[in-house]
Design a protein that fits this description.
three-stranded antiparallel β-sheet; globular; four-stranded antiparallel β-sheet; alpha+beta
């Protein structure tokens, strides 16, 4: 659609505008632009300077066009720098004097307090982490404490339970800086400030690019906060909507190098049993824990929360694990209970739904042996530490790192092969895919959508490249015969 100029003359009084303002205003028609969230654009020219604004609907754009046209007909001068009618500029200045813009740290504190009750612990932590990254661009830099302490102080200060308390001694200087040297929320409308905000979303503290998923998570957290700022009149519009998204590599595609084969998988589970055999059987307690990741495709948080009542373990044949709860690690400050592990329903499902997972005889035998030797932990959980408490992520990470040293040759230890306990889940899903299990059934068992399974594991299915090459070769041969 072309941007046709509105040629209808505007009624103006005689005389000239004062400095910085102009009566030379031309208004253009509303047009469509290639922008998903705000596809309607209005453009106008003030004293030779082109101005534009985008809107979510055509009605909003036409309404704004009508407001500007009425100001033209009244003979109002327009400010050249902002493109706004003089009456709007004066109203904005009066409002700013009467009620200063809320400052960034206080805005974030109030915003997180409002979202706290409705959010899971991991969501709370993710919001605080994303907004903490933005906070580094929203404080005065000269003489500021180091970025690490500023981030920690921000995260501590935005937890509602800490309101009114003195910060830890090591964070006191950073906390005072955040509360006295931060910018008003309105400064986000400044292009220079917002450019620094976008940088903070995309990079780590050491200046290296942040992982793709980290960048996406931070951007989502900022976007919801900015939408809230618009709703509360702290900002006229969300500046993130007009910013180009940074192209980031997807961290969602599984790297084939992390996948273990059948022999390596068994060797790793055996090696786990040797870890800490002289120290409270640290490894032996977790053999079955890693086993449910490797043979049933569970997430670690699902395995942590699994109870005996969730298990059907017959003496022979296949069994079933019926999953109902996850125990993700978030940290005491983020959970309602004050425990490190939150208590949630299954990921991406309603809180009262479950997910039955058939398990092969080999895993049934491993679980039966585990329960016979160690029994159940508190609350009937299948896995627990030596005191019966919840298995911590640091515990199963340390045991896994030691097991890799036992099971893998030195060159493999330095490689990505099974570098994380979560990689056992990847190996399980890949094994099922290569066995020919339908993607929809795999998705049901592991709690993902078929689209996610296809996207994340498409490069891990054996034989697909060879099959495609064979089809292309056959087609080329047929073309040659036809010629």
């Amino acid at each position: 659609m072309s941007t046709t100029e509105d040629t209808t003359p505007a009624v103006r009084p005689h005389g000239s505008a004062r400095s910085g303002y102009s009566l030379d205003v031309r208004l253009w028609k509303v047009t469509r632009v290639d922008r998903k969230a705000r596809p309607y654009q209005l453009r106008w020219v003030v004293g030779g300077k082109v101005n534009s604004a985008t809107f979510a609907t055509s009605a909003l754009a036409e309404s704004r066009r009508s407001e500007l046209r009425q100001a033209m007909r009244r003979g109002e001068a327009f400010e050249i720098s902002s493109g706004q009618p003089e009456s709007e500029v004066r109203a904005a200045a009066t409002a700013a004097e009467a009620e200063p813009s809320l400052r960034w740290f206080e805005f974030c504190r109030k915003y997180l307090a409002g979202r706290w009750r409705m959010s899971a612990a991991k969501t709370r932590e993710g919001m605080a982490d994303g907004l903490a990254a933005v906070a580094l661009a929203m404080v005065k830099r000269e003489g500021a404490p180091d970025d690490t302490h500023l981030r920690l102080a921000f995260r501590w200060g935005t937890v509602p339970a800490n309101a009114g308390d003195d910060p830890p001694a090591e964070l006191k200087a950073a906390y005072e800086w955040l509360t006295t040297e931060d910018r008003p929320v309105a400064d986000l409308a400044d292009a220079g400030v917002f450019e620094d905000v976008l940088y903070r979303l995309s990079y780590r503290l050491d200046g290296t690019p942040a992982a793709g998923e980290t960048h996406k998570r931070r951007r989502r957290a900022l976007n919801t906060a900015l939408e809230h700022a618009v709703a509360t009149k702290e900002l006229p519009e969300n500046p993130l909507q007009g910013a180009h998204k940074k192209r980031v590599g997807s961290g969602a595609v599984v790297d084939r190098r992390v996948l273990v084969n059948a022999v390596q998988g068994r060797q790793l589970l055996t090696a786990v049993s040797y870890v800490g055999s002289w120290d409270r059987n640290r490894g032996r307690r977790l053999v079955a824990f890693y086993g449910v990741l490797y043979y049933a495709g569970l997430r670690p948080a699902e395995a942590v929360g699994m109870r005996l009542s969730d298990c059907d373990l017959p003496e022979s044949g296949w069994g079933t694990l019926t999953l109902r709860e996850t125990r993700p690690v978030s940290g005491k400050q983020w959970t309602d209970s004050g425990e490190r592990h939150d208590r949630r329903g299954l990921k991406a499902r309603e809180a009262d739904t479950d997910r039955p997972v058939p398990i092969p005889p080999v895993l049934v035998a491993i679980l039966r042996a585990h329960l016979k030797e160690f029994g159940t932990a508190k609350e009937g959980r299948v896995f627990g530490n030596e005191r019966g408490g919840v298995v911590g992520s640091s515990t199963y990470w340390r045991v896994w790192e030691e097991a890799r040293l036992f099971a893998l040759p030195p060159d493999r230890v330095e490689s990505p092969l099974a570098g994380r306990p979560y990689d056992l889940r990847h190996a399980c899903i890949t094994r099922w895919l290569n066995a020919g299990v339908p993607i929809a059934e795999i998705a049901r068992r592991v709690g993902n959508s078929p689209e996610v399974i296809h996207r994340r594991y498409h490069g891990c299915i054996d034989g697909h490249e060879e099959a495609a090459n064979a089809k292309i070769t056959k087609a080329l041969e047929e073309e040659g015969d036809a010629a």
